[in-house]
Design goal:
Chain B: Pfam families: Response_reg (PF00072). The complex is a heterodimer of chains A (156) and B (208). Helix content of chain A is 76%, strand content 0%. Chain A has 156 residues and is an all-alpha fold. In chain A, helix 3 runs antiparallel to helix 4, helix 4 runs antiparallel to helix 5 and helix 5 runs antiparallel to helix 6. Chain B is α/β, with parallel strands linked by helices and 208 residues long. Chain B has a domain of 132 residues: Rossmann fold, CATH 3.40.50.2300. Chain B has eight helices and five strands; from the N terminus they run βαβαβαβαβαααα. In chain B, helix 2 packs parallel to helix 3. Classes of the chains: A mainly alpha (156), B alpha/beta (208). At the A-B interface, helix 2, helix 3 and helix 4 of A face helix 1 of B.
């Protein structure tokens, strides 16, 4: 009976459940985890890594578009928000996605101040999620290194 | 139209279609790198060969439909494309494929994050096989694959049960649209609306 593994697995499970309960993740993250197996143990980590890179890139370009009050390219911002909403939805990044919904509304009415607030919020949320998931993946690594299997966690 | 051109299936010596399970080669088109990674995995896990491209233009290039001679190697059995893409949209791509005599039989599935009924109707009318709402899940891909495999199996059954005379009759039928066709499934291909109507109902019931 390997109590180290059991303890780590318990930690992992509790942490993952808490991420759902606190609204960081939604069902699509569960769907992504289904696609991961022993042959592709880094799949989820790779997808979210692409997502975070995407966030950084889009936030930078939207920031540039919003920079000068007299010359805001709302079309470009809207396009950025649309892409961000899409990719956050695809990975189950629930809070990021929800900010994008408000963000789009600000874009639609050409509210620069609102957009800037949403931009700041989306930046905060993706970085927060990045940290949380890093902790989650570290737990996964520890479990595997201790010779254990990653638990299938049921959220509902 | 030569039906065999679209789907190269390995037919075993006994001619028993139920034994063979050929791998579909899917061309996935999406401008989002995140979505490309996800759809690629979804398809691979569903035992499909996958090629991903980032735009409609690249998709046409891959198929060799852009005028240049750069056609790829593997035959494509299914195209899955995002709707909203810069440049050529998924709808534009769908139209170009259906306009091509060589590629119009390849089933095309549209994906979109937006549940806009007129958009869905437009795509189905243009000949899309189905419409997937993003984010795409494993169950969606399984369903599509089953649909495509079922259609392909029906096509090949039609072929294998024909003798030479029937085959030439079929080719004559296909080239004269006004003639009444006695080949059940082939008429669905000549008149895509009947097939689309069915998918429309199926799609609507799953969306509403």
């Amino acid at each position: 009976m390997n109590t180290v593994v059991a303890k780590l697995q318990r930690q992992f499970q509790d942490y993952l459940v808490s991420l759902y309960q606190q609204g960081f993740l939604d069902n699509q993250f569960t769907e992504l985890r289904k696609l991961q197996d022993e042959g592709t143990p880094d799949f989820v980590a790779e997808v979210v890594s692409l997502f975070f890179d995407d966030c950084s890139k889009l936030i930078n370009s939207m920031s540039r578009s919003l920079e000068r009050p007299e010359n805001v390219d709302f079309k470009q911002v809207d396009s950025g928000v649309h892409q961000l909403k899409g990719s956050s939805s695809s990975v189950g990044a629930r809070r990021v996605k929800n900010v994008c919904i408000s963000f789009k509304e600000c874009c639609d009415v050409q509210n620069r101040e609102g957009c800037l607030r949403c931009l700041q919020q989306v930046d905060y949320e993706y970085k927060m999620l990045k940290t949380k998931l890093q902790d989650l993946f570290n737990l996964e690594k520890q479990i595997v290194q201790a010779g254990g299997a990653i638990p299938q966690v049921n959220i509902n | 139209m030569a039906v065999g051109e679209v789907m190269r299936m390995e037919i075993p010596a006994g001619g028993d279609m139920s034994v063979t399970s050929p791998e579909l080669h899917v061309l996935a088109v999406d401008d989002s790198i995140v979505d490309r990674k996800v759809i690629e995995r979804l398809l691979r896990i569903s035992a499909c060969k996958v090629t991903t491209v980032e735009s409609g233009a690249r998709a046409l290039q891959y198929l060799g439909l852009d005028g240049d001679k750069g056609a790829s190697g593997l035959k494509v059995n299914l195209i899955v494309t995002d709707y909203s893409m810069p440049g050529l949209t998924g709808y534009d791509l769908l139209k170009k494929i259906k306009e091509s005599s060589v590629f119009r039989e390849i089933p095309v599935v549209i994906m979109s994050s937006e549940n806009i009924l007129p958009r869905i109707e437009q795509c189905l009318r243009e000949g899309a096989e189905d419409f997937l709402l993003k984010p795409v899940k494993l169950a969606d891909v399984k369903r599509i694959k089953e649909l495509i495999m079922r259609n392909e199996a029906e096509d090949c059954k039609t072929l294998s049960h024909s003798n030479k005379r029937k085959l030439s009759e079929y080719i004559d039928d296909a080239s004269s649209p006004s003639s009444s066709s006695t080949h059940g499934d082939s008429s669905a291909k000549d008149f895509p609306s009947s097939k689309r109507m069915k998918s429309e109902d199926e799609k609507f019931s799953s969306l509403l």
